[in-house]
Amino acid sequence: MRLLSATCGRNSGESRGSAHGSGMMSLLFFLAAVLSCHGCPEKCLCSSQTVKCQNQGFGAIPDSLPNNTRILFVTGNNIPRISSDSFPVQLEQLTELYLSGNELESVDAMVFHNLPNLVRLDLSNNSILNLSKRALPDDNKLQILNLSRSFHNHSRLDGLLSVLQSKKLLQLTSLDLSNNDLVILPDHPFINLPNLVNLTLQNSSIISVSNDTLNVPALRDLDLRDNSLRSLPYSTLAEFSLNPGLRIRLGGNPWRCNCLMDDMLLWLKNFTHVVDKQNLTCAEPPALKHRPLLQVELAQLKCSGNLESVLETSYVFLGLVLALIGVIFLLVLYLNRKGIKRWMYNIRDACRDHMEGYHYRYEINSDPRLANLSINSDV
Ligand SMILES: *[C@@H]1O[C@H](CO)[C@@H](O)[C@H](O)[C@H]1NC(C)=O
Ligand SMILES: *[C@@H]1O[C@H](CO)[C@@H](O)[C@H](O)[C@H]1NC(C)=O
Ligand SMILES: *[C@@H]1O[C@H](CO)[C@@H](O)[C@H](O)[C@H]1NC(C)=O
Ligand SMILES: *[C@@H]1O[C@H](CO)[C@@H](O)[C@H](O)[C@H]1NC(C)=O
Ligand SMILES: *[C@@H]1O[C@H](CO)[C@@H](O)[C@H](O)[C@H]1NC(C)=O
Ligand SMILES: *[C@@H]1O[C@H](CO)[C@@H](O)[C@H](O)[C@H]1NC(C)=O
Ligand SMILES: *[C@@H]1O[C@H](CO)[C@@H](O)[C@H](O)[C@H]1NC(C)=O
Ligand SMILES: *[C@@H]1O[C@H](CO)[C@@H](O)[C@H](O)[C@H]1NC(C)=O
Ligand SMILES: *[C@@H]1O[C@H](CO)[C@@H](O)[C@H](O)[C@H]1NC(C)=O
Ligand SMILES: *[C@@H]1O[C@H](CO)[C@@H](O)[C@H](O)[C@H]1NC(C)=O
């Protein structure tokens, strides 16, 4: 009876009570108990309606789970695949299922079809390659989905996206996609999650967030810390502004503090959405490295391709062109040096002749006795 009362939570009171009754009654209750709920699976711990099968080297979900199980932990085992056989009996009361750390690779169609009231599903810390979009029943009641540390290859995300976009997760409020290798989010990944309130994308190698990515009206908590964001486009900031209740975390990203950061800096100063804005620091350029973004002046946000340096380079270019023209000019002079010499001599000779003629005439003119002669010599 001890064992049974430990394994079948809700029936335990009845079972224990019956032990004080007649032997016949006790036997009846014992049989009823055996029929109504299986015993606790071997190597698992069962208390109340919680069953824990942790770090026991299970290769599959243990069968013969008590049918009144409400919370099930099968964690830290080695279960590469779960399929429609994994939960062969309907577990009407199961609301929380924890399957983290099982080296799970494949989550097949119909796996959770016998768990119609599942509210919280934890598939974190696995290596999921295949995730079927038919794993959950169409009318599921899932509210919390934990896929943290589950996707290590961003080329294997199509399954995840088809689940998120399947229009089946209508009651989902919390989605944890942290510590994954996501890199780029496709268009509208969360648009079919109308009740999504908490979204964690921390440490998921994300390099950009477009305005369409996070067009999720119900969203209240968005964690984008520790990604690879260098900037956010103005259209994304504008989208954030439309959702006044949104709380965003952006710390731990390598912000590039150049001239394109001015929109975001103004936005950060003007709006209160970013709760950790004091924690944002520049990673580039080297002069501003580690500087808190809010302490950077707008005038310090420069681009290496901006007007000043364009002007500078055009001056340098102009100088080079002028120097080239000068060199060509000198070269022409050098090649023509004989002609130029001749030309110089000609000029010099012409000058000398002229000067001599002038000098002679002057001498004649200065001697009145030779005045006539000078007139004749001019002729
Ligand atoms: C458990 O299963 C038995 C029959 O196998 C059924 O009578 C009982 O109602 C079930 N209990 C729950 C909580 O589903
Ligand atoms: C992830 O699971 C492995 C076992 O598969 C375990 O050793 C490790 O501690 C877990 N890591 C976290 C962060 O839970
Ligand atoms: C998801 O699971 C991890 C452990 O693997 C835990 O640290 C984290 O808090 C969980 N997230 C949610 C939203 O429960
Ligand atoms: C994943 O699914 C594809 C088809 O959807 C299949 O070809 C492949 O074998 C599956 N891989 C695993 C590990 O189950
Ligand atoms: C990711 O998956 C692709 C194809 O599915 C494979 O070629 C690649 O090696 C994988 N990368 C890692 C790091 O596992
Ligand atoms: C960040 O995610 C990677 C996997 O993408 C993981 O290996 C690493 O431990 C995570 N970092 C932290 C601090 O959790
Ligand atoms: C969202 O997360 C916060 C803590 O980060 C928690 O207090 C809140 O209850 C969560 N909301 C929902 C709907 O899960
Ligand atoms: C996103 O921005 C583009 C232009 O930057 C705009 O055409 C589009 O309508 C925006 N989408 C949303 C949902 O605001
Ligand atoms: C600051 O925000 C208010 C509304 O909160 C808006 O009217 C104003 O134009 C914003 N200023 C700048 C510089 O963005
Ligand atoms: C800022 O960063 C520090 C250290 O990483 C952390 O302790 C603190 O909680 C962060 N502040 C906010 C508002 O997140």
Going by CATH, the architecture of the largest domain would be: Alpha-Beta Horseshoe
SSE ordering: HHHEEEEEEEEEHEEEHEEHEHHH
Order of strands side by side in the largest beta sheet? 1-2-3-5-7-9-10-11-12-13
Relevant CATH superfamily of the largest domain:
Ribonuclease Inhibitor
Main beta-sheet strand count, sense and barrel state: 10 strands, mixed
Any idea what the radius of gyration is?
44 Å
Percentage beta strand: 5-15%
CATH topology of the largest domain: Leucine-rich repeat, LRR (right-handed beta-alpha superhelix)
Distance N to C terminus: 156 Å
Hetero compounds? 2-acetamido-2-deoxy-beta-D-glucopyranose
Number of domains: 3
What low-confidence regions span 5 or more consecutive residues with pLDDT below 50? Answer: 1-21, 27-36
What order do the helices and strands come in, and which of them pair?
Elements: H1 2-7, H2 9-19, H3 23-36, E1 45-47, E2 50-52, E3 71-73, E4 81-82, E5 96-98, E6 106-107, E7 120-122, E8 130-131, E9 144-146, H4 158-164, E10 174-176, E11 198-200, E12 221-223, H5 234-241, E13 247-249, E14 255-256, H6 262-270, E15 282-284, H7 307-335, H8 337-366, H9 371-378
Parallel strand pairs: 2-3, 3-5, 4-6, 5-7, 6-8, 7-9, 9-10, 10-11, 11-12, 12-13, 14-15
Antiparallel strand pairs: 1-2
The structure holds 2-acetamido-2-deoxy-beta-D-glucopyranose (10 copies).
Residues 76, 101, 103, 125 line the site of one 2-acetamido-2-deoxy-beta-D-glucopyranose.
